[in-house]
Amino acid sequence: xxxxxxxxxxxxxxxxxxxxxxxxxxxxxxxxxxxxxxxxxxxxxxxxxxxxxxxxxxxxxxxxxxxxxxxxxxxxxxxxxxxxxxxxxxxxxxxxxxxxxxxxxxxxxxxxxxxxxxxxxxxxxxxxxxxxxxxxxxxxxxxxxxxxxxxxxxxxxxxxxxxxxxxxxxxxxxxxxxxxxxxxxxxxxxxxxxxxxxxxxxxxxxxxxxxxxxxxxxxxxxxxxxxxxxxxxxxxxxxxxxxxxxxxxxxxxxxxxxxxxxxxxxxxx
Length: 269
Description:
Helix content: over 70%
Oligomer: single chain
Number of strands: 0
Shape: globular
Distance between the termini: 32 Å
Order of helices and strands: HHHHHHHHHHH
Structural class: mainly alpha
CATH superfamily: MetI-like
């Protein structure tokens, strides 16, 4: 009696996409039915076709596109700073155990503090504007990059590092030639997680702060207007679509750059 390979029972990439699409279709149909049947009043939950139609029409709205671009710009700047700072600090802490131990208590104290709770303090110090938004994004998005970099260094083959040292390579050369390439898939995963967190913080900060421009500001202002539910939900659809696009791009980038890692882990992302 032959046993089937567990990998053969995993759904294909197309199968995963179809399942995800089916979930979205079911959610849309449920919204359509609830709205059309009057089970939920249309002022609170318009039919999905109405929401999607409004979301499509916003693609030609200059005011909305200005707000969308503002969110994308803050997201990109904040994510770039978080990655640019999180990776080197993670390499430093992961390579110098004494330093890691010294700052661990401070890091564990700061990490659980929600970024949204810092909005009043950061706004008081930096004022209202994109600088405050970017600062909060950096604070939240740096943690997954930092810790995934540290975890990646812990997974490096010690034999490979010792072999490099035996041939006379110094600490920096070992990090550059062995540790960093080995930890790169973990860092990429941290960047992907940070990208999602950065988008959440960008939109959330705009909604809660109530100042400046952005997708969150558009949603907050629509919430205050008469018959603004369609704009609120259409803006939410744009937020979800943007997050989905970012995740797909980063996942595909990981698969292409680190095929060897996905082969070793059985294709798990």
